[in-house]
Amino acid sequence: MFPGRIDPRKMQSMMKQMGISTEEIPAKKVIIETSEKRIVIEPCQVSAMTVQGQKTFTVAGTEREEAKELELSKEDVEMVAEQAGVSEKEAEKALKESKGDIAEAILKLKKE
């Protein structure tokens, strides 16, 4: 961005004049959740740059992907248990096996 060598203090001064501020964030781990998976970055280095009131984060580190854990609502578990005439524990197990598909879980439990 800038030609030649620039003293870091001078660079900070120039950035401040342009309305740009940066800060290092002492993060240990960064987790990004998508609808299908989780991306975990650990160990990591995180910095935040503010330009005209807008904050931008930069993350660097070692990443690994994890399958996203299925989240079941209490209402879904109760409904499956009631419809299939089974305990909530059995309903929860069937919902997990059917990847959250309520109809499939009920049908599976009624066949047993």
TrEMBL record:
InterPro entries: NAC-like_UBA, NAC_A/B_dom_sf, NAC_arc, Nas_poly-pep-assoc_cplx_dom, UBA-like_sf. Contacts the emerging nascent chain on the ribosome. GO terms for molecular function: RNA binding. This is Nascent polypeptide-associated complex protein. It comes from the Archaea. Keywords: Protein transport, RNA-binding, Transport. Homodimer. Interacts with the ribosome. Binds ribosomal RNA. The keyword RNA-binding applies. It holds the Pfam family NAC. It comes from Candidatus Iainarchaeum sp. GO terms for biological process: protein transport. HAMAP family: NAC_arch (MF_00814). Belongs to the NAC-alpha family. Residues 5-72 form the NAC-A/B domain.
